[in-house]
Specification:
CATH class of the largest domain: Alpha Beta
CATH topology of the largest domain: Rossmann fold
Strand content: 25-35%
Number of domains: 3
Shape: globular
CATH superfamily of the largest domain: HUPs
Helix content: 10-25%
Radius of gyration: 22 Å
Distance between the termini: 56 Å
Oligomer: single chain
Structural class: alpha/beta
Mean pLDDT: 91
Number of strands: 17
Low-confidence stretches: none
Strand order of the largest sheet: 12-15-14-13-16-17
Length: 360
């Protein structure tokens, strides 16, 4: 009889990773549950809330694991998380971009640090509660990352950095399920977190006030400056340039005769440029820090669908290589609010071709 495959389940304390753990044990894998301790609650000015990875979340995860006899451990990664996720988040805002820390957390924490631990303990797989699928394609000789079948919950966008090696040791048991089915399983099995709401916020900024967090982290405040129009005429004063993101209309604190939106941030001049909605539409972007999944690299132009934000719809585009680690993406129709620091992810149907970070 062949030996049982061993799986390390990354458990956040939420219902998705709990059901992922349950499904893996039911499928006959030898499993342990682990929660990554990523920050000290007091360091981020938080007790608990609608985030993942807090102290109470670890207790929820442990309670679920023990309910079906699975060993459970908490692993401390606070220093790594600060370096790889929090520092990058802060740096991107200071440089004028808008970061996506969930992508960095998956890339550097779950599928680098945790996978390293998986190898050290001689386990076969990392398992997470993401709504996505991994399939091996014989003809391509490659592992493919595919969307989860529940289109409303698909999380393939935040996983585009996965390498062939990582995909070969990763399982996403929820990829074939709809969210409603996952809740049903949790309720049927009596999990303590069966009705727990999904985490909405960035875990280390639970109140959503990014500027407050960045100022506290950097131990400095970002000075007021001018709101200007495209001609440079002053429209009013802003409260610190990191408080604004491309496409923002609300919360500007200005009485204007028409609706204006944040179109540009001039970091050197400390100016926030406001313009009409149509100014937010562009048909071209450049991206670097690329990772290709469906093939080794781009050779000629690739026609595909591209997505510039997690909740944004995919759009028809052509991707062309313009440098060693750089592509130009030309959309058939202009896209609203293309933002540096966010990811652009490329699709062919439900297959993730790859992605990169928007730099221009």
């Amino acid at each position: 009889m062949s030996e049982k495959k061993k799986a390390m389940i990354a458990m956040s304390g939420g219902v998705d990773s709990s059901v992922a753990a349950y499904l893996m044990t039911k499928a006959g894998y030898d499993c342990i549950g682990v929660t990554m301790k990523l920050y000290r609650n007091e360091d981020i000015g938080m007790e608990q809330g609608k985030t993942c990875c807090s102290l109470s979340d670890a207790e929820d995860a442990g309670g679920v694991a023990r309910s079906f006899g699975m060993p459970f451990y908490v692993l401390n990664y606070t220093d790594d998380f600060e370096k790889e996720v929090i520092q990058r988040f802060v740096d991107t805002y200071i440089e004028g971009g808008t970061p996506n820390p969930c992508i960095e957390c998956n890339r550097y924490m779950k599928f680098q640090r945790l996978m390293k631990r998986m190898y050290e303990l001689s386990f076969d797989y990392i398992v997470t509660g993401h709504y996505a699928r991994v399939e091996y394609d014989e003809s391509a000789g490659r592992y493919f990352l595919k969307k989860g079948v529940d289109a409303s919950k698909d999380q393939s966008y935040v996983l585009y950095n996965l390498t062939q090696e990582q995909l070969s040791h990763t399982l996403f048991p929820l990829g074939e399920y709809h969210k409603t089915e996952i809740r049903d399983i949790a309720q049927r099995e009596g999990f303590v977190n069966a009705d727990k709401p999904d985490s909405q916020d960035i875990c280390f900024v639970p109140d959503g006030d990014y500027a407050r967090f960045i100022e506290a982290y950097c131990k400095k405040s970002f000075p007021e400056g001018d709101f200007v129009d495209e001609e440079g005429a002053v429209l009013g004063r802003h409260k610190g340039i990191i408080r604004y993101t491309i496409g923002q209309r609300k919360g500007l604190g200005l009485a204007l005769p028409e609706s204006l939106y944040v179109c540009e941030k001039r970091m050197d001049a400390n100016e926030v440029v406001l313009g009409k909605n149509e100014r937010l539409f562009h048909d071209t972007l450049e991206a670097s820090d690329l990772n290709w999944i469906a093939f080794e690299d781009v050779t000629g132009p690739v026609r595909c669908k591209a997505k510039i934000r997690y909740k944004q719809k995919e759009a028809d585009a052509v991707v062309e290589k313009i440098g060693e680690d750089k592509v130009r993406v030309k959309f058939d129709k202009p896209q609203r609010g293309i933002t540096c620091g966010q990811a652009v992810v490329f699709y062919d149907g439900d297959i993730v071709l790859g992605g990169g970070k928007i730099v221009n």
